[in-house]
Amino acid sequence: MKIIITVFLIAFLLITNLLKAQVPPQWDTAKVELTLKLNQVNNEILNRWDNQPYCTDFAGNLMLANSNRGYALFTPDTAFPYPIPAYQNALYAKIDTMLMAFDTLGYKAVDVTLQYPMLVDSFTNSQYYLDFYVTVCQKIKQKGFKLIIGC
């Protein structure tokens, strides 16, 4: 019985391999039309461009400093929401490593997500968050990056 099932399985696989799906002919027409249109647009851009570089600054998001991480920005234990210097120093070292990677990738700016109400005085531990972000922003500026704050 096992031999019969194996033979049928092999035959099925061979037959299905021969009946591979084909691209519908309408898609070739769409590809040709799309390619022509894209070439026209590209030529129009090239004709209008003065060969000068634009002021685009590519940026990376500094996920380690994302405010959605909450207390994890200054303590590993959310039950103890106060800064632990050894933990923060390790986090700052990781942030330095990410900034070096951004520099290696050629980024000119760094995006930091900072959500409301993290820095509002009435927000719990807002001063700790402020101290953290001041340090992070100083590190970003020291490395020569532009700073983008995403809210």
Distance linking N and C termini: 66 Å
Order of helices and strands: HHEHEHE
Strand segment count: 3
Q: In this structure, how is the largest beta sheet organized? A: 3 strands, parallel
**What amount of the residues lies in strands?**
5-15%
Structure overview:
The protein has a domain at 59-150. Helices cover 52% and strands 9% of the residues. It has helices at residues 2-18, 25-48, 85-105, 126-142; strands at 59-61, 109-113, 146-150. Helix 4 links the parallel strand 2 and strand 3. The chain is flat, with a radius of gyration of 28 Å. The relative contact order is 0.12.
Question: What's the arrangement of secondary structure elements?
Answer:
Elements: H1 2-18, H2 25-48, E1 59-61, H3 85-105, E2 109-113, H4 126-142, E3 146-150
Parallel strand pairs: 1-2, 2-3
